[in-house]
Amino acid sequence: MVTLAFFFLATAAMIGALAVVTARNLFYAALGLLVSLAAVAGIYVTLDADFLALAQFLIYVGGIAVLIVFAVMMTAQINRASSSHRLWPLGLLTGAATLAGLAYVMINTEWRSESRGETISPMVGDASSAGIHLPDLLFSTYLLPFELAGLLLLVATIGALVIARER
Amino acid sequence: MDALALQHYLLLSAGLFAVGLVGVLAKRNVVVILMSIELMLNGVNVALVAFSRYSPVDELAGHIFAIFIITVAAAEVAIGLAILLTIFARRNTVDAAEINLLK
């Protein structure tokens, strides 16, 4: 069941990603991004990362994707084909080489990985994964990065307002 | 049907990263380049969370890292789009090849 869900979601994520790069219409590219991000949120669920799945939905699908759709509409070149560089085959080659190299390493490395228990479903599991001590960790070991992230968001908000202000 | 292994997730992550990389390198529209950067960050996040899930020890550092990456991605997109809108208002283009203010 989880395997089936994974392959469905992975296919959706890849199709969405390919749509971003190949779509002629900029709006379809944005929709492809939306599909891809939502599918990745589903992938997080299959990985027992419930909180991250929720965060992914709220921040990426609800925030970033909407922001990008706004940008697509405000820059008003939807109908103009989202064209590629003259040198686009070079980019494609680099991407393919990166994928081949990563896949080779990932498949041939002997990962010291064991799935923690067989209980994929967080309802049945011992609840030791996401949710229980994610906040504890965030507010103890990673407190300083957490506070810095808050500061970064504040700076980014003010910075975006200042940069985009009408003059 | 065999069970899901770490490799499945890693391959998905590599696929998303590579597609994003092609988008960043090959496209001219800055909006598409920003979208592709988001795809790459998502690929990395999938890898981090998968490592966290499949690690032999009970470790949630991958989740924490993913949370911070999401935060930074949100900030980056906000700033990037603000800059993009300013450039568009002044130069009326979103073509990366035509934006050469720093040349």
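qc> Residues 118-131 of chain A have pLDDT under 50 and may be disordered.
qc> done
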